[in-house]
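Pilot study result, target chain (353 residues):
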Amino acid sequence: MNIFQRFFKKDDTEAEVKCFSEYQQEEAAFDAIERGMQSVPLDRIVGSVGRYHDFDGQFRIKQHVPRERFIRIKKAMLNGTPMPPVKLYQIKDEYYALDGNHRIAAAKELGHSEINACIVEFIPSKKSLDNILYQERAAFNKKFQLPYSIELTELGQYAYLEKQITLHKAFLEKKSNNEISLKDAAEDWYRTIYTPLVSIIKHGHLNYSFSKRTLSDLYVYISHHQWEEGKQRKYGIGIDELIPKDMEEFRNKMEKRKFNYPEMKRKITAFVLLTTTAKDEFKIMENLFSIDEIKEIHGVNGDFDMIVKIEIERDLLSSDAEMISLFVHDKIRLMNGVKSTRTLIPSFSKTKK
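Predicted structure:
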């Protein structure tokens, strides 16, 4: 093999998607758990189980692979033909195609953001900091089923968050004199305690001073010292005055601030593009139209089946994106027959009355 051939052989190898078996060996991930059907972001599908030689690093078909099947699948997707879910293997936050490589390639080329998949997760057993943190995070997510993943970089800190949620659950039950599910308590904690404090941290630009720490790390650090130790610490100008020594007192204070700052409670407009199963299209439209925040629904032809206009009020300190994402997840994406969604938030608008 001459230099010219070696050069192009190396370039071709580097352009391949990742090989599942290589990563499986690297992480010693051999114990598997079936996770069922989920909607998976396409950008998280980084490799293939058996056909990694056939696709480049962007999951595009290489020249040596016949394209007839790919073209047929892409045309069917454009026509709105329902596709069976692909089958994926998962290791940590990465996914590998077991079945459906062509469907994934077509969906990526068409600009889709997600794809329905049956998932089998392989649990890493290699003793590394990243793997232990991943296992702690996975256990936390499984237990509380929050809509967002909370990213921590220190071991044992998820146990502290679990303690907070458990205490908050007891508080809510005492206040309402009713039993509260762990999932509902976690969602209320996330919305009324975690999110406001994280917003204060962001608005105070504290994360700029701790570039190697996540916002969740700073939440744990600040809340621990405010609510566990009760010490006054100067994390930023005026932040001690914002955060009382008791977690529930902080929650009440944040709730009251809604009325003191009406500009923080304003309407947000967004557009959601939906793909749905054909047989459920009209039922989904009726169910969506019954939701107060949904103002318009339009059926369209093309890559998507519907365009939905929503108007919601922004909660205290939460960003537009957070509020809209929670609404879309809870009210739209979980609806039977909804295959995928894409959310558009206008950066500026001009309307006529």
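One observation from the pilot: Residues 263-344 form a domain with the Alpha-Beta Plaits fold (CATH 3.30.70.920). A full batch analysis is planned for the follow-on phase.
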